[in-house]
Amino acid sequence: QQQVKQSPQSLIVQKGGISIINCAYENTAFDYFPWYQQFPGKGPALLIAIRPDVSEKKEGRFTISFNKSAKQFSLHIMDSQPGDSATYFCAAYASGAGSYQLTFGKGTKLSVIP
Amino acid sequence: DSGVTQTPKHLITATGQRVTLRCSPRSGDLSVYWYQQSLDQGLQFLIQYYNGEERAKGNILERFSAQQFPDLHSELNLSSLELGDSALYFCASSAVAPNNSPLHFGNGTRLTVT
Fold this sequence. Notes:
The structure holds two protein chains of two kinds.
Chain A: E1 4-7, E2 10-14, E3 19-25, E4 33-38, E5 45-50, E6 56-59, E7 62-67, E8 72-77, E9 86-93, E10 102-104, E11 108-113
Parallel strand pairs in A: 2-11
Antiparallel strand pairs in A: 1-3, 3-8, 4-5, 4-9, 6-7, 7-8, 9-10, 9-11
Chain B: E1 5-7, E2 10-13, E3 19-24, E4 31-38, E5 42-50, E6 53-57, E7 64-68, E8 74-78, E9 87-94, E10 104-105, E11 109-113
Parallel strand pairs in B: 2-11
Antiparallel strand pairs in B: 1-3, 3-8, 4-5, 4-9, 5-6, 7-8, 9-10, 9-11
C-alpha cells in the first residue's frame, strides 16, 4: 500500500525555470513532511522539511507548499540549475505511530537542461 | 559525507546464496534503518533498530533479517537470494526520531543477483 503518491515520475526543465514536484498522502496521522535529494551513486540527503502547522517554507531556491485539507504538498525549485539535476523524494512521518518509519514517495527524476 | 558507512559498495552473487550487508551509523546516532531501492518501487522501508532493539518492520521478506550490535553497527542478512532481490540497499541513521533529527543515508550497497 503506497501511502505517499508522488508525481511526476520524471521532469525536464530549462535552466532558470521552475521545477514543481507534487505529493499526496492518505494517512492523516502524518505530521512531518521532508524532501530528500539524491544524486547518482549517493544516498538521499535531506533538502527541506515542513510541519503541517505552516502552509509554506522557503530555504533559498527551494520552497515547500503544504495544503493540509487536500492532503497534498509540493516542492518548488526556483531558478532551476543543471546542478539541481537529481532524483527528489517526498516523505511523510507520523510521530505518534510508535516507530520512526519514514514513508517515501517513488521519486521524481529531475533533469535541468542548459 | 553523511557519516554513515556501508560496506561493501558492490556485491555480485548467485541465486540461492546468502550475503551480509554492513552499516556503521553516524557517531551518536542510536537509530538505524534499512531501505531497499529499486527502479520501480522507489525507497522501501525494511526494518529499523533503536539502540539494539527492533523498533519497526516494513516490507521485509522472511528470507531477510537484521540486527544491531552493542556498538550500534547493523547488519542486514539476505538469504536464499532471488533475481528480484537485486537492488540498492541503503542504511540510514538518526539521533532519535526523524522529525527531530534528519535521517542520514549511506551511499548504499548495490546487490546484483545472477
